[in-house]
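Reviewer 2 asked us to include a model.

Predict the structure of this chain.
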Amino acid sequence: MFAAPMAPFELLQPESLSEAIALLDTDAARPLAGGTALMLMMKAGVLRPARLVSLSGLGLEKIESGPAGELRIGAMVSLRKLETDERVRRGWPVISGALLRLSNVRVRNVARLGGHLAHGDPHTDLPPLLSALGATAQIAGPLGERSLPVEALYSGYLETTLKRDELITRIDVPAMGKRRAAYLKCTTRSADDWPAVGVAVVLDGDRQTIVVSAATDRPTRLASADAAESLPIESDLHGSAAYKKQLIRVYIKRAIHEARRAG
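Predicted model (structure tokens):
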């Protein structure tokens, strides 16, 4: 049995952000970052865009430090570059550590941060971690630019609050300061597989920030560890709702312990 051929499409390569945004002003267009998820969906026939707009020529591949010590990551930075960047390893080691178990190195070489976040899949690793760290997404569209907390990007399973002709251009991650953080995930197969549950914890003195994912349809912030009991969780191929709820209980405790140990 053979898969149906991929539907034909045009590939456009704009040289400016304004040109890229203008080319996305149609339901038939999709932005192309690394393409790791988009191409799989196109091959499966889930998406059939008539136009792909490449973001490779827009100069969004930089990792820089901001004036307040924040980390500024261009949307077209590959996950592998983010993982190996010395600035990230020193200042935000929790990000580098999380990336080591995000799929495999071949995918991380191709996948881009902006696409990873804009895809909207709750089983991805960086959205809950970046949400817990207080990261913001810089977004450009036909009406100008706006800033949005990473967790506010998501509205449901594979659904985001981005408009059709808006693009993530940069992610800003606040300096860690004296904060300590951990991200843990439980997989049902290999260590780098999609998580059944992902838990990010950031400790700032007596304050705890807890964000869970994979068991929920989007990264979800908890007011406390006990609040996990009221989370709406659905069964999927990674486990039953009851199993995932128990995983959340266990992994929140483990992540808090791991964050306390972080230097």
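The two ends are 54 Å apart (CA to CA). The first helix runs from residue 17 to 23. We have added this to the supplementary material.
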